[in-house]
User: Fold these one by one.
Assistant:
Number 1:
Amino acid sequence: MPIPHLRFELLESRHITDRFERPKLPKSKFLNYSLTTFFEEALDEISADVPVNGIDIVEWMHEVTADLIAMEAMATTHENNGGHITFTSGDGKIPGVKLDSRTYFRSDTGKTVASRGYAILITPYGEYKVPNPGKLTIAIRDFLLWAYAKAGRWSYQWPGGILRFDRLPILSRLSRIRDLASSIISGFSAPTFVYVNTAGFSPFESLDLSVSSSKDQTIVLTARDPGNYANKIFSTKLEVSKGTSEHKIRIISFPRVSPFVLEMQPEDGVSTVFKSMSIFP
């Protein structure tokens, strides 16, 4: 059954510093580059290391490698908070972008994807149209996935990527969230998801949220039903300035605030770090 109606009430916002505070990240486990939540930074490092020659090294190769770096950076911050993300990026035509045997892009040429206006993503819950150029969040039952497509009108090969949220970080009165990042991937900002495990016996809970943002932006906060992610319970917008800010939010639901999944969607082109999250009565 869907959980009862729930809403957020912003009590206070306070700007702390104009400086964007990056998460501490190691080098990539898979590639010989530094992890970063910025696609452009990864692209610059890769381009300097292996320049495009127009023969065996072409631009889309740099782009998907930069995407993998940004995806791994985001996945690392989720692992540090007890979550797990499976991700992939590559050429949507050959060899194709495949997360597993049931989750992959249909192998079309870039020209086909661009002229049609979308890429076709196959999932265990059916086919979905990912806008081109664009992104799509899929939330159904216990399945959370984000994908993007970026095919050119005259291209054969095209960059595409998939993130699947296999295990969500848990926020409770006993466990905080720290340095949870959303990366810029091919110019698109991916969402983050947190399971908010409330005590479940009070109509009020308080959420303290510290956010560091690379630009001024509006973050969309959405509460989803943990029994079926497709059910949106409530959605609101949080205005965030460049740098680090702190926000106090009251969560209200009658007769009590039941556990829910919190989706946080930054604006495209903005790197966002949720420096800390805590919940209390």
Number 2:
Amino acid sequence: MSVFCRALLPTLVLATILFTTWVAAVYGGDDSRRASRLRVKALIATSTLVLILLLRGAYEKDERPPMAIYRGDISTFRVDGPRQWLGGWAFPIGGLILSPGVTAHLDPFEAQELRERMETVIEEIIRKWVADHNLQALPPVPQQIDRTTADPIAKAKIAAWIAQQQAATAAPNDRPDKIDESVERSSTTGAPLAPSQEDLGTLYVPPEPSNNTTL
């Protein structure tokens, strides 16, 4: 049981006794049987609440609040809090690495060093993406996105990409011997890339609703 729960337990017990006594006195009146029933109901309700709090505290006794979680395809690195401030320096209390065959706890300095490395790599990759796609030349947009407009476009791109994937993985008798060089492909996997917004009109056309009715 955590230190917090041990300190809170006497207070909860006393509050339960006082609450049940108050309920019986206020709502029971002079009817002793009714007062007893109310006392039992109030005792059951408050005891249930106390039990839930105690079980939750016992379950979370060894859990540290995460400050950040970095996930790869398989591995995970968690930075554990609470944050420790000492002499103007801030440190995590520790860290956790989960990887195939590895479950390792890190001390504050190891967790801080690995976190700095992760953030450095993330920053470099984001900036490279911005430069490669010339995003700085685009006008800034609000962080909030209009889903009514953006979601259909995104779904159309996914549908077009799936169509390309199916065409690329078709049976040998169903596809030409020569790969279509007009389809832009990944430099690493060779798979077709997601179509651009300009290509959507030729790759995917949503069906128009029909006004004809059949009797």
Number 3:
Amino acid sequence: MQRKIITLKKSNSSQQNSNSITILSTNKNPTKPNIKISPYYPKQYSKYKSLIKEKSFNNAKAKKTIERFLSRFRLANVFDGIKIKNDDVYFSSIQSGYEASIKFFLAFTAYEEIVSCAVLLKIGSHGYNRKPLQEPSLQKVKGNLKLKKLLLMNEKNKDEMQASLEKFYTTSSSNIIPFCYGIRNSFAHGELTAMGSGSSRGKSIPMESQDLFILATALLEYSETVFDKCIALLK
């Protein structure tokens, strides 16, 4: 690509001289720099943007849903923790638990949006929301007795939710979605705390917090596969 040299001259009235600043630009139009796509978007994001540019996307409601998904997906991906003041000794002891809960919550909001889009586009039946978790993490999550008690004893659970949670805990079911809904609802409405869920013990990252991070990653990965299916229908 041809390289342009742009010279800016700055006058100095007190010394009656001038300084030159040379900028090397590889962009043919310096006012419109090349923008690198964030690596925190889904891998097929460029294809989606091409569809928009080519006006191949004519479902306005699905488009709005995908745009919300992309914003939430990127936020969940870039979230790497929370910053606290060094003198807050109490909160530093439960920080990892809250970080895991927030990461999970952000990932689940992205999942909800892309599943809504899949429903709009009539993708599959109900199979797209049955993503299993890796077996070791699944068993550790089921083995968190504090979290189990909190979710099953939540009086705000509707009958269908309660039945799904009981099935998740009492059978060999690997359908994590009822469990995820339970965590999402409990965290959003205030019942779920890091200490109360057994996901925080001292300054080290407890296993339960690590499992929630793994759960968040699983949701984001699966959300990306649903996103791929959605844009495949919009070519």
